[in-house]
Amino acid sequence: MLVHAFPSQSATRRKKESPPEDLQRTPQLPWRRGIPQVPALPVRLAAVRGSRRLPDRNLQEVLRGKLRGLEGSGAGVGALFSIPSELEQKQHRRHLQGLTEDTVTEMFVPLLLGFLSQCLENLLLDQDFWLSSPEQEEPGIEVLVQEETLNLMYKGILMQEGSFFGRCTASQMFDSSTSGSDLYLEQGDIALFEPPFKGSGWTVQSLADGARGTKAKAAVVPVSPFQQRWDGGGPDELSFECGEEIHVVGLLASCFQWFLGRHEGTGSIGLVRTSLVKPTDTNQSTNIFLDEEERGLFSVKDEQTKADAIALLNKSTQHHMSSIYKLAGLLFSMDSTPDHEELRGKIDRILKELKNSDVDILQSKATDPSSGEEDKKELEPEEDARLPCFTISIGEDGVDSFLPLFSFLNHRNYQPKFASVYGFSLDLFHSAFQGHAEEEELVAYLASSREAARRRRLFWAQSRICFLLAKLCACRAKFSQARVYLEEALSIPKDTFTDMRFLIAIHANLAIIYLTQKNIEKYFDSCERVAALRMGVPQHICSTDREPEVLHYVLKKAILAGNIAVEARVCFLMAQLYRTLEQTPNIVPYVERLQALMEEPPGSAHFIPSHGYLALGRTYRESGLSHLALSSVRRAALHPSATLAHCLSSTCFVLENVPGESIPLQVAPYLRKALALLEGAGEHVLRQAISMSLSHLLQDCGLLDDALRCIHTLLDGGLPCSKADMMHVFVSLAWLHIHNRQPRHGLIVLEAVLSATLWNCATPQEGAVHNMRAIALQHVGDVREAAVSYHTAIEVCKALDLQHCWAVALANRGLLYRRVGAKSLAERTLLSSVKMFSTLQGEGHKENFIAVLLELGHLCVSQGQLENGKICYEWALLTAMGSNRLDWQLQACQRLCQLYCTTCPDTTQSIIYSEHQLALVRKTANRGQEGDILETMSQLYLSLGTERAFKTALEYTKCSLGIFIDLRRKEKEAYAWLQSGNIYRMLGQDELVDLYIQVAQETALSTGNTLFVLGLLEAAGDLFFNSSRDREKAVSFYKDRALPIAERTKNAPTKLRLCNKLGELLMQMQLHAEALPFMQTALDLSIALGERLNERVAFHRLGVLYHQLGQFELAEHYYLKALSLCPAPLQFDEETLYYVRVYFTLGDIIFYDLKDPYDAAGYYHLALAAAMDLGNKRAQLKLCTRLATIYHNFVVDRERSLFFYQRARAFAAELHVRRINLSPEQHYCSTARYRSGLH
């Protein structure tokens, strides 16, 4: 752009202007001072889907569940953002998250850039989100903030600060308090406002002239938080005449007093006062970079990025290939897919092409020899820029000793070697100058060289020596002397000042010294000159570690003037400056602001948003803000401006910051987009690395069809790979088919590979192929061929001494033996595999080792070798703990818990391992599983039966209850309420039992599941039914609540149970008439359902009931019906004992109640036969006594009477019973009892 000079005066005549005093004020940041508490800011989280980001109800419910689950995790959502802000208040009924006043200012940029939404997506969305393909409707989260509320809160915070910078929303007049005329501010003007205090009005101070005014109500809005921070307060000049044209170098900003210009006629470059020129034309510049080198902070090197991506992706996939010897999993059913021939044809075609190929394609361009040459070329400039060494010799006369220094410094233009001279570091004085013991000698040497340069009129050397002397004086706090040297360096006569970087260094150091000496007028003038130079000179050199203070002033003026381009340029310079000073945390706000400015219209055609997001991500990472870093690189990869390099850079960023060698889910969208961008572009090595990584990622997530599709697409692309690469692809393809229940497809691939003979001698790949072929054959049922392939794989491992692969092949053979029923042989083979695993070093084999230990433990337990099974399970757990593998620790713990709960019950051990399992599950943040384990542990503690155990069980139950409430698992919640009430009943706190049961019922009713409500009501009644006290309370649950529901839903099994329980309860309560219809109903239902056991129980209970009611004939009838349903012959002692008791009872009914000793004797004889079969001597004593009494008193048969009497006496003597009374008066009375006394 050209400008014309006016009026007719030289730039050497100028009047220094200084900005108003208010620009010197740097207000204290609002988040660094005590602020009274203000209401929380509501933030709504909305689940959306698709490109139009429409609300999704189903996803919203999932999001609510995730948020409820996070509430109980302790850390909450606040730790997500890794920024000082916290989401303090959670209001789940409204699904809002609260932000305190300290977070408002720092939330503006993350909200503006959309990082908060992506941070929440990283935490709350599962693998379905990350693995969704581009053609699917991608889900997401939107953070919705009420802008009006946010602005009001922000304004309120600033008003509490006492004063703030604001922008007038309308033109307005203020009553002047400093002059006679009123203060007028136009719409858009920025001024310093003070809110009303104790009835006063608004006070405003103009930033243009410092005038003040007041107004009852001001129309003002605060400037943005970033701007609020910065709105507080010679020979270098170009000579020209009026009417001459001056070309603007860099940016011309009307807010600055100077700009850098080039004389159109002479070509000279210098500072030009802005007020002395008039632009020929104006345009709003959007370019903040002056050359390509400045774009380094916001650029991506394509070739280097590709090489890094290939290396990282290959490293990740090598983790999968290191376990190329796979363990055989569970057998599965075959699926029939008819495309066998198509697959065979594809594999044969590729293998044929590969066999005919003479030269293998290199795996990566990173191994290209040309890269070494490029590295050498990059090192050459560094060698050229190496500093010479100057020896200090004060005693020598003449200037010959200074000639090397003069030769080094006396250059008119800037040289790369001057970077260390102008830079803020003092390393130059220690590395380039030698021969001095103290710093005073160095100062003396430089002073002498300065004088020698002056005498020889070496002006450039003299100026630079003055600059070095100034640096030495400044570091020794001799600021006045440093200022003299700098002013001398600036005033030495020269034709033109062509070294602009030197000029910037002089003015920047002068500005800091003027500021230190409180020479505000000169400080502002130097800052203005630095501003003009920074707007036009690229390749920044930081000349003082206090240079940010100079640029702060420049930034304030740019903000006040509303010049977006200059503000963006200064933000870039500040970021670059702090990076040079290695003050990474200070970079963040400037890069954020720069990105926000470039995202706003009109933006910049020279600034690619994805570049900025990547730079911002790197800055976040260096500052420890990991979640924001991930969100930033995700924006970089998925932004419309993203290229292949951006996707690969984002992938590398994530892989470099993930511990271990696994591929994180977050890279899936980047890999998909990179593949889409690579379509038709060649780059076969890169495409293979991306496809294999994406395939392994999909395989790990169980998306086997998608993983297969990925590899087949790779093969269809005509990949010109090396043999090693192709082997990698084929082995992965075969395993995917086997793992995807397509073993025949896997066999096709493996047999084609074997027939192609791609190796000339035994190789690990050959053994892996045989091992995998054996697994496929095992799945299709060809056990003999599978055993042969396993044997071949083992022989290859022996030949190559591959201990890990050998152990895996042995384990697979052991699993094959187990399948065919050779358990002893399977045990020995698996034990050999375990011994081999135990001798291996490193971590790569641990996963397979743990799996084999679990399989061996399961085999031992199934064979009854419980101790060996325990050892294997505990060994697996210890190995998993040693290698920090959480998933395998959980599996081993589950096996141990199952072992101690069912196979060999041990409550103490069950509790120990359940506690460990609970700790592991809490690390996985699986709230549902955590609640289930807490529920199980509550049952375990209840089984201990002590008061202390009951209290512990209550704590676990309440913890599980809280989780079930958070997750809205209503059925689990209802039973947890009920269980809590039951534990309170066990603890004797009966006043709380009814309350908890009532809440459980209400929760069950809220589910709307009638069958569940029925089950819970029955369970509530069972609490009292199975208790020793308050059993009568069960009647209301059974009779009034559960039974009507069972009848209405026609649930016959439940109705049967309820009638049985009601009959027993009512009979125990002596309510025989009420119990009768329930018992009769139970009998009818048992017959209708064909429940023989329930039918026998119903007949027996009716017999007991009629016995107690005195209806002895009916009692005899139902007892006999119950006996008729007993199995014949009797199988268990309990059944024989039942015969003894029932026949004894029938004999008592006939003898005592119906007064028929003859029939009674028959029942007693049947009971005695059963008692003799059982060997119950006490029952035989009683029965022989009864029969002796009958035959002695009623059926006069002296022989039988004596026989039974003698037997009774023998049993009495053996049982130590002293007396047997045969008098009929003792027993001949009515006894309608429920039990006969025979136990």
UniProtKB/TrEMBL annotation:
Residues 215-282 form the SH3 domain. TPR repeats lie at residues 1096-1129. SUPFAM superfamilies: SH3-domain, TPR-like. InterPro entries: SH3-like_dom_sf, SH3_domain, SH3TC1/SH3TC2, TPR-like_helical_dom_sf, TPR_rpt. Gene3D superfamilies: Tetratricopeptide repeat domain. It holds the Pfam family TPR_12. Keywords: SH3 domain, TPR repeat. This is SH3 domain-containing protein. Residues 1-33, 362-383 are annotated as: Disordered.
